[in-house]
Amino acid sequence: MPESIRRRAREDRDEAAPRGRRSDAIENDGGIFRKGFASLTELALSGVQVTACAVDLGSGKVLFSVDDHLSVPTASIGKVLLLIEVAARISARDGAGTGSSGSSSFDAARPASRPRPVRPGPGAEALSILNRTANDEIGDSGLWQHLQVPALPVSDLAALIGATSDNLATNVLLRRIGLDTVRARAESLGLRRTLLLDIVREERGPDDAPQLSVGSARELAILFGRLHAGTVVDETTSQLVRGWLSLGTDLSMVGGAFGLDPLAHVGADHGLRLFNKTGTDAGIRSEAGVITGPRGGVSYAVTMRFNDAELSGRLAVLEAMRVLGTDFLEYVY
C-alpha cells in the first residue's frame, strides 16, 4: 500500500491512543442518553479510549459525541466500504459497474466519476463466480473457511461478509476488486478519516498496514445514516448494502440491547429494525449501525480501545456498549 496511507494510519493511531483520562470532547445534547453517558465516562476515567457519535435520522442532528473526529482502528467495520463498492457494481445498468469500463464490473480498476442509472435487483454481476485460493485463506471470523465449496457468487460472498464478517470472502473480493478501488469509492463519498487499509492478515509485518481499517465515529454514523436514506451512491446500492448488513449475527455490543434474534432480524420485530456492522480485535470493540423504531431512528458508531489483558476489562467495555444501546432503544421505541 502507498507509504503515505500507511504513515497517515500510524499517525492517526498514535493520536488516538488511550491516555487514561476522560475526554474533554464528550457532548450530550440536552442530557439525553444519560446512562450511556455515565457508563462511557466511567470507562474513559479508567483508561479506555472512547470514540462515539449518534445522529437523529429525522433531523440529522448530532445527539451524542465523544471524540468523534478521531480516526481510530475499527477492525472489521471497514469491510462496509468493500460492500458499498460491490453493491455499486452489481446495481449498474449495463454490467460495467457504476465506476468502471469494459465487459465486467469486477474486472474494473477504479470507479469513474459519473455514476450510471441503475436497474432494480441484481443481474449477472451478482452471480459472477469467484474462486478461493491458498493466498486468500484466513481464519477467525467467517463461515466459508469451514465449508467445502471452492467458489461462490459475488452476492453470496457479500452476504457472508454482512452476516459473519467473513474474512475469506473479504480477501477474495478484495483480490478481484482491489484496495485502490475501494479507497477511491470511499473518497468519492466524502470519507477522509474512514479507510479500509488492507486485506485480512493473520499477522501484520512492518511493511503491512498497521490495522485492517480505521474510521471516525462521526463519518461512520453519517455514512450509516446515508445508507438508511438510500443516498450512498444510489438507492439500489444502499438497499443491497442494508440487506447484507441486516443479516449480521453479532449482537454482542450495542445491538445486544435491542432484544432482537441474532440469527433472524431482517424484518421488523416489535417495530424495531436494525442493520449494523461490528469490528473485533485484541483490545478493540467497534460497532456502527442504524436502529429505528416507532418514535424515530438513530445512526450510531462506537469504538472502544482498551487493555485486554484481563477478561474483566473486556466485559466492562461490552456492558458499557449495551448500556448505550439501551439509551438508543429508549430514544426510538
TrEMBL record:
<protein>
    <submittedName>
        <fullName>Beta-lactamase class A</fullName>
        <ecNumber>3.5.2.6</ecNumber>
    </submittedName>
</protein>
<feature type="region of interest" description="Disordered">
    <location>
        <begin position="1"/>
        <end position="25"/>
    </location>
</feature>
<dbReference type="InterPro" id="IPR000871">
    <property type="entry name" value="Beta-lactam_class-A"/>
</dbReference>
<feature type="domain" description="Beta-lactamase class A catalytic">
    <location>
        <begin position="133"/>
        <end position="303"/>
    </location>
</feature>
<keyword id="KW-0378">Hydrolase</keyword>
<dbReference type="GO" id="GO:0030655">
    <property type="term" value="P:beta-lactam antibiotic catabolic process"/>
</dbReference>
<feature type="region of interest" description="Disordered">
    <location>
        <begin position="94"/>
        <end position="124"/>
    </location>
</feature>
<dbReference type="InterPro" id="IPR045155">
    <property type="entry name" value="Beta-lactam_cat"/>
</dbReference>
<dbReference type="GO" id="GO:0008800">
    <property type="term" value="F:beta-lactamase activity"/>
</dbReference>
<dbReference type="Pfam" id="PF13354">
    <property type="entry name" value="Beta-lactamase2"/>
</dbReference>
<feature type="compositionally biased region" description="Low complexity">
    <location>
        <begin position="101"/>
        <end position="112"/>
    </location>
</feature>
<dbReference type="InterPro" id="IPR012338">
    <property type="entry name" value="Beta-lactam/transpept-like"/>
</dbReference>
<dbReference type="GO" id="GO:0046677">
    <property type="term" value="P:response to antibiotic"/>
</dbReference>
